[in-house]
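ESCALATION

Customer reports they have been waiting on this structure for their group meeting. Please prioritize. Original submission:
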Amino acid sequence: MAGVREKQGQLVFGLDIGTRSIVGTVGYQAGGRFHVVGQRVCEHDTRAMLDGQIHDIGKVGETISYVKEQLEEDLGRELTEVCIAAAGRVLRTVTVQVEQDFDEDHEVTEEDIYSLSTLGVERAYEEFQKTNDTDMRFYCVGYTPMRYYMNGYQIGNLEGHKVRSMAADLIATFLPDDVVDGLYKAVELAGLHVANLTLEPIAAIQVAIPEKFRMLNMALVDVGAGTSDISITKDGAITAYGMIPIAGDSLTEILLQHCLVDFDTAEYIKRQAGEQESVEYQDIMGLPQVITADEVRALLAEKVQEMAKLVADCIRELNGDKAVSAVFVVGGGGIIPGYTECLAQELGIARERVAIRGQEVMQSIDFEVADARRDSLMVTPIGICLSFYEQSNNFIFVEFNGDRIKLYDNGRLSVADAAMQSELSNDALFPKRGQALTFAVNGKSRIVRGEQGEAAVIKVNGETADIYTQIHNGDRVEVIPSTAGEAAALELGKLPELSQRLHVIVNGAKIDLPKTASVNGRRENEYYSVRENDDIQVQNFYTVREIADFMDVPLGDDILVNDTPAKPETRVYENFTLTWTQTDSDGEPEEEEDSGAEPEEENLSVIANGLPVTLTGKSSYVFVDVFSFIDFDLSTPAGRAIVTLLNGRKAEYMEPLKNGDVIDIYWENVRENRR
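Update from on-call: job pushed to the front of the queue and completed.
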C-alpha cells in the first residue's frame, strides 16, 4: 500500500475491529468514488473484546489473521498495511483554536493546512494534560478541523488563498494508551503495519453524513456490540464526539440468562427475532426450545429504553443541552427492533427523524464483489478506508528542541532522522574527545589525545531515549548535545624519555642524574605543561658546572673529563668519568702527606638508613661513597627527588665521613607518605 495517498487505484485495507466481529474491507478511490473490491466478516470465537477494548490480544490477532488471509485469497495479493479505528470506554475530547502568522502574504498549501491541524493537536494535548486527573497515558486517535479562518474571517477552505494569518477551530479525541496499544499489538500479530489510525465515529461519519448535510444539527450513533459511539454536526462542521459503554451485547446477555444458553446462541436468538416471528434453539440442558419475536422484544424492551436514554442524554450534553434535529443510526447493534423509536422518544423528536442508515448513504460507493453487504454494519469499515485519504500527505510533524520540523513518514522514523532533518551535527549526538596535543620530541611528531566527553542526553515526550527510538506525529524530542572531554594535558616530566637516568662517575663515585629537556630552546623543569606545537629536545648530557650544581658542591680546579683536561662548560655524557681537585672547608685544596708509601686502607663504620654499614677499600671516605655499600636503586626514580641527610642535616655529596656518622637517604615522597 506504499504510495496509496499519491496514486489513485492503489488498494486501501480497512479493519473495523469490533467487540463482536471484525470486518475487513479493501478498496480504492478513483473518480470521486470509492470502489470496494474485497469484503470479509468474521465473528470472535470467544469474548476476546468487551466494550470496544481488546481483552485477549492473541485471540483477536488470530481473527484478524483469518480475515486478512481470506481477503488475500480473494484478491490474489498480499496485504501488509492496514487502517484501523479505535473505540473505548474512556473517550476524551478537547476543542482548541490554533493560529499561525506570516511576515508577508503567504499562499496557503495543503501542507500548511496539515501543519496547522497538527499544531492544533499538540495544543489540545497540552490542554488535555492540564485536566487529566488519572494515571493513564492518553493517545490522540483522531482530530477534526471544525472551522477555518483567514485573516480573522471564517472561510470554508484555506488552500490557495494568500493570507497574513490563518487559524482553525479543531476538536481532538483521546483514548488511553492501553486501548491503542492493544489494537496495534493485535494487528502486528497478524503481520500488518498500521498505516492510519482514526476514531470509529470519525470513520462512520465519513460515509453516513456527507459534508452537504453537515450544515444541519444532526447526530450519528454507531451502535456496536460493546459501545455506542456518537458524533454531532452543526454549521458545516463536526462539533463533538462521545461514547457510552453500552450497546448490543447488553441485550444479548439478557437473552443468555432468560433462555439459559451460551453467548453465541443468545446472539443468534437476538438477530433472528428481528427477521422472523419465532426462533428455535437448544438450551444448555440439550432441550429444544422456541421463543417468539414478541417475547424477545418484551424481554429487551426495558434495556433498549435504557440504552436509548443514555444515548439521548449524551447527545444533549454534546449538543449544548439540547436535542438535535435528526439522528442517523449505523452499526449492527442499532437494528434491534424498537431502538430508533425509543431514541426519538427520549430526544423528543419525530420518529421519522431517527433512522437506520445503510445502503441509503452509500451512493458514492461502488461494490465490485459478489453478494456484497450494503447494510449499516458496513458504514464504519468503509469510513475507515475513506479516513485514510483525509491524511493528505505522507509527512509528520514533530517538535525538535523547540522547533517544528517536517519528516517524511516511512513508518520507521527515529530520533536520528529528526536530528538529521533539523541539521543537528553528528558531533552533537556522539561524545567528543577533548582537543589533542601535538608536539615534537627530538624531531619526531607526537600526539596525546584528549579525554572522552559525555554522550548526548535524548528524551522523547519526556522519556529517556536514544538515537534509535522511533518517533511519531506530534512527538516532542529533546536533545541535550554531547560534550567534549578535557583537552589533552602533559607535564614535561611525564615523557618516557625523561624517566631514564644519566649515569656518570664523579671523583670515583657513581652519580645518577635525571635527564632534562629544553622546550623551544629554553631549559624547563619537569612540571612544565607541554603546549601545542612545542619543540622538545631531551638532553643526554650535563655540563661539568651543572653536575656540580646538582650535587650542591663547589666546583674545584684541575677538571678532567675521561682523564682529559676540561672546562666548566664541557659536556659530560653517559658513563663519562669526571674529576676535579677537592677543596677543604676553607676553600683551599686538600693536601695529602707524601710519606713515600701508598696510603693505608681504613675501615669506616656508619649507620645508613638505620643499619650498620662498613665502608672499606679507601683511606678516606666522602658522603657519595656510601651509595656503593647500600641497596639504593638510583636508576629507577621512586619520588620527586633524593633526600640526603648526615647526622640529621642536609649533606653535601663530597662531604667527608667519620666513624659513627648517621646517614639517611630516601626518595622525597616515599618518606612523606610513610609519615
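Sent to customer with the following note: Residues 1-8, 592-596, 671-675 have pLDDT under 50 and may be disordered.
Escalation resolved.
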